[in-house]
Amino acid sequence: MSRAYRRLREQPLLYAGGIVIGLACFMPLAWLVIAGIREADQAIAPVLAASSTLPIALRSLGLAVGVAALAVAISLPLAWLTHATNLPGRAAFRWLVVLPLAIPSYISGFVVVALLGPSGSLRGLASSLGIGLPDVYGTFGVVIALLFMFPLALLPLQAALEDLDASQWEAARGLGLSPWLAFRRVIWPQLRMPAANGGLLVALYVLSDFGAVSLLRYPTLSYVIYLRYENPFGRSESIGYALLLMLLVGILFGLHRWLAGRSSIPSRASTRRPWPSIPLGPWRWPAALVAGSVVGLGVLLPIASTLGWWLRGVAAGAPTFPVAKEAVWTLGLGLAAALIITSLAILPGLLTRAGSRRVSQLLRVASHSGYALPGIVVALALVFFATRVALPLYQTLPMLLIAYGVRFLPLAIQNVDAGLERQSRRLDDAARSLGRTQWRVWLEVTLPAAAPAIFAAGLTVFVSTIKELPATLLLAPLNTNTLATRIWGWTSEAYFTAAAAPALILVVLAFALLVVRPDRRRRTSP
Amino acid sequence: MRLSPPRHLSTLIALLALTALAGCKKETPAPSSATAEVELPAKAESLVVYSGRNEALVGPLLKRFEEETGIKLELRYANTAQLAATILEEGANSPADVFYAQDVSTLGLLEERGRLAPLPQEVLGKVTGTTRSPEGKWIGISGRARVLVYNTDKVAADEVPSIEELTTPAWKGRVAWAPENASFQSFLVAMIEKEGVEKTRAWLEAMKKNEPRAFPSNVPLVAAVAKGEIDVGLANHYYLYRIRGEQGEGVKAENHYYRNGKAESFVSVSGAGILDTSKKAATAQKLIEFLLTPESQRYLAQANFEFPAVEGIETPHSLPPVSSLQRPDVSAGSLANLERAVTLLRETGILL
Fold it and tell me: Which of A34, A38, B80, B218 is the most buried if burial means most Cβ atoms within 10 Å?
């Protein structure tokens, strides 16, 4: 008690900030509990009684874990190839492979159906090669559509690699270890935690997704929750399903802890040596083909399909509308959310460093409920609280940013955490013994050293924000449209030509942010 | 002493947040200032409208209302059911004055929960029969007819199956439907009212055995029929017009209107109501009256290929006359039967 009190006196702002953020993040969960208690017999009992509940829950969990595992399996080689090898076009691939993240699921679903559906061009290509693809409606299609989110796992890995010291690898190789063994013994232990963090983000995203699972007919808990909101009779039940979803989040957290393992104390040197480029030998071009097909399938095909809709529509005389104002709103909201949320996400990491694991752990767990719950649940929870305790804020810009914070803080936390975890605490101690205050050490040493991770956090939040729909639709200031709400509006009424321009601009915005990403190798070592 | 003032980071965060907010404000003029450029009377009236109807469908019409009346509209466009859920969460603090819903069953829900204010008889009188609430708290604005959309390469116009034939072996795996869609559920409501619960259940079970392909909404359904990925689909009529607009007149799909006075000839209705918490009921009424003027009704028919709710409005040639539809005499907003329909869908395992 006295220790906690002393720490509180040392870092009042840090603690106060942590508690405020924690409370904000608890809102969706608190609303669920309030509503669950209020309507227990309608909300909980039917969900527990339904024989379909357990299969749906298991299917959701299976899909989340499966897609997360696949995403990590794709990300790990891609991250390594684009970081440490002589892959052709390595620098370009490094950011191109992140771009599939910018394709919203309400677009990727349509693209997957268009390409892999019964009359899809890719299906035709595959069958002419003698490959019979499974039905797009079902597991196959939904996994493909959700895999567009794989860069959630790639970004933390890229940031971690960026932060690694090449001398370890060189030493391991110098001692005669094969490349594979050197990777497994020296590199992998340091990638385990970012890989697990990224995997968790993918899994939580899959739990929350509605667009892909509804179009491709794969019943998950989120799908059922949305269904219950579609008519007046199931609304209470959706609360029960959402509480069940929180249980799955708990399971995924346990899994994450077990997989992340105990993170090894980093041995990062204060000076960084530039990475060698490991020759791939005969595998150089096959590797490029793999990286290229990820970019082709995840970026070029969706863009080409969208362009195709646009050209066909223009030829048929379909209307298009200017979206400049929406683009500016989208960019502004995305940047504001990225800056604010990433700044806030540093707090739990610092709290851990300040020695308060428990507070920061609580904060982490609380924040993840907002990300894993379907957007509509989070949005309605915020509607409930805002109209009761913060009416002047309701439907204002700050309220919308709070909503983005509640939804996307975990994205930033997972990335920043991985970055801060790698910074040796001895550095803190050393600097403090030289008379620097804790905050100066953090500001001058720790945070700059974690810059790649912090940038990855900002990027993930930015891309997620510009695609966000449910909270934007219900909580944005009146008369406000973003690119995402335009795309939603137009595609849901089959105005594909009109939707093409905002969809392409959305991808370009994500692209633009990726280009300004800091690249350590271009600079000389500090 | 280790009392380190944590000012730096907090100032940094505060600064970042402020610049972000300020930057956002600067770059993006608030929507109010954008519309304020239009010359308005000093004390401009305004209304908050929640629209479950898409901006692409009703945006131009609402803009015309602003221009003609000088009343400023503050709009929120979103999914109808989610907006209704929002209004219920907002409770007494709801800022909304008018709710314009894609499907009047949602208005029926708000009416049942006591969230709608009564409409005056002069407004209700603009439409007839089942296009308005029996309680007088919502009114229909326009309609979408149920059709069987069929691919013209796969099915000849004189071979279009009846609803009953869709359950026969010949149609196994060839039918698309959208059981989650409000209009589909309204069609079931009509079937329950005309044929009874048991006949409806039997039809649903026979359909399910025939392995129809389910779509989450009408757009991907009609698109799939147009592409020939599936032969026929139960849908609303106007998506085909949209897809023709997008893909040209060569689209190989047609609508079949059953015109038999039964459930399959049902017309889903969009409508509007005034919130019980609105303090601007008189202004709100002006908007609803505007939507029911002959000009607005004609706009909905010509721009969106919708069926006008007001009688005697001429419709485009590509649209069959409303009077020819032979729609069943069924109330569109009947909540009790909607609940029965949803229960049937869940009991038969068609809906989760």
Answer: B218
